[in-house]
Amino acid sequence: MSTGPSIEAIRAAAERIAPHIHRTPVLTCASLDEMAGAGLFFKCENLQKTGSFKIRGATNAVFSLGDAEAARGVVTHSSGNHAAALALAARRRGIAAWIVMPRNAPATKCRAVERYGGKITFCEPNLAARETAAREILERTGAVMIHPYDDDRIIAGQATAALELLEEVPELDFVLAPVSGGGLLSGTAIATKSLRPEARVIGCEPAGADDAFRSLAEGHIVPMPNPQTIADGLRASLAERTFAILRERVDAIHTVSEEEIVAAMRLVWERMKIIIEPSSAVAVAPATLRRLGAEGRPPRRVGIILSGGNVDLGSLPFAGPAGN
Amino acid sequence: MSTGPSIEAIRAAAERIAPHIHRTPVLTCASLDEMAGAGLFFKCENLQKTGSFKIRGATNAVFSLGDAEAARGVVTHSSGNHAAALALAARRRGIAAWIVMPRNAPATKCRAVERYGGKITFCEPNLAARETAAREILERTGAVMIHPYDDDRIIAGQATAALELLEEVPELDFVLAPVSGGGLLSGTAIATKSLRPEARVIGCEPAGADDAFRSLAEGHIVPMPNPQTIADGLRASLAERTFAILRERVDAIHTVSEEEIVAAMRLVWERMKIIIEPSSAVAVAPATLRRLGAEGRPPRRVGIILSGGNVDLGSLPFAGPAGN
Q1: Which pTM does this prediction carry?
Q2: A269 to chain B: which residues are within 8 Å by CB?
Q3: Chain A, window 99-118: residues with a beta carbon less than 8 angstroms from a chain B beta carbon
Q4: What is the rounded average pLDDT of the residues A40-63?
Q5: Same domain, B104 and B215
Q6: A-chain residues within 8 Å CB-CB of B275?
Q7: Is B51 in the A-facing interface, judged by CB distances under 8 Å?
Q8: What is the pLDDT of residues B227-262, one digit of tens each?
Q9: Which helix (H) or strand (E) covers residue B160, if one does?
Q10: Do the Cβ atoms of B46 and A266 come within 8 Å?
Q11: H-helix or E-strand spanning residue B165
């Protein structure tokens, strides 16, 4: 028996969240195809509401709750895209969202949560403080905890990005997605292996935060206490649930250097004119810079999930003359 | 009798260029709608091949040539997006493109022309030197001059962006487009007034390069010898042809400050996660910052042509904390 949500649960999630999210475009780029030696199909979750795929899982979780349960509100701890996504999903359902954020969370992320009506509780920037703060809110309010990835409803929601991609481009040979806690990659793997079993599913990870790579290589979860990467969305570690799904369904994890992340990010900005965050670039680098999928006649078809586009424009990793 | 290409010529252009261009998406953004007090529909020519709408007109012109004429190649003088567009259109037809560029043209623009196989001739950065260099090439090669905007085939091609926008969102109340030499705005006005006569067509222009505003106000072309604006795509002046079309079909010209251009550009980057160049932001500012179209029940529907996304990432006008 397989772990994680079924393809039926993923299809149900797609129907549940459709009124609340964008059906994001799948973009192509001739000059990147040429560089890659393959046909690249970019699923643009950077253009999604809240600027990342996270709204898919959050919306599915929030709208899966029974009315009485939902009325108590939801709570999570996150310094990133899940926080804003949960706040917006809760607002769409008309319920409260309490978000525990570390004191050093970027101001842009806090403003996004506030814009969507989330109630922020700040805490010290460590996991113990986050969990304590969240537990205190749970006890006080009776709200429902919505974990960013250790939750089948979240995974089913994140899977709908790959579902849409495969509906639009059925004959993919590869599907690439970044991996952090593993919610997106788990969902991507289940959807892909259900609809297109012959496609290889590749998780992409910064070399400086390669806990998924190590965990799959060693056969047990290897925690990553001090991840070092510009990809701020990819610093979480796998949960048992996502680890089990990845073991079953993912073909390989590719790790990329910080230089490759910035180079791939710049390529997409310059050639495709869309803003992706470093976490998304992690899944672009293997295809464009390393030509994964380049040996094939006809050219291989590579799907890439661009996970998000939330960056601080005031501090970008680009300097000097253009790269193209 | 109206000046400029007919709606039939525009439809023919759309059919002619369809195999060679992207049908760009029309994107929406809830938070910008809220700010604008209206429904905004962004036609994303920044995601077009070569990074701007210019490929539409260039492709229509190049593929309108007879075989014998085309075989002699094409020539233009441009330091901007038309240069790259003409080079790519010529390559698609398998003919030569000679591009006269000023010595001080941005390196990114030169590289784009080279990437598409254009043959660059550098000249001194003034109009007389450009025209002399182009004439010399014309005499030597017999190639066909393709002016960036003073040409009905170019105008018909540029008009196809508005045609597609109105096919997708028929009931627009306003259509906004930037104006420089007037090719895009002319085409936009002809397409809009043909398909949706009740929509108001608004040209948008930097206050520091407001020759279209002055020309329409005074009833004759007012040249702009020394335009001052960050919007490098909007420094050209109207031709008699485009001036006549704008007089007939455009409802108003709105001018915006340099601060508004940068603010609107940043808004689109941050909220929509797409890269637009300053020239495109000129058409965003009236809707988002000045709430053009805000008084209406139901909310007014505003179409905005995002003309291009070619910027140098090494020197961006953003600094300091995020704007959202």
Answers
A1: 0.93
A2: 275, 313
A3: 107-108, 111-112, 115
A4: 98
A5: no
A6: 269, 273-275
A7: yes
A8: 899 998 898 889 999 999 999 999 999 999 999 999
A9: helix B152-168
A10: no
A11: helix B152-168
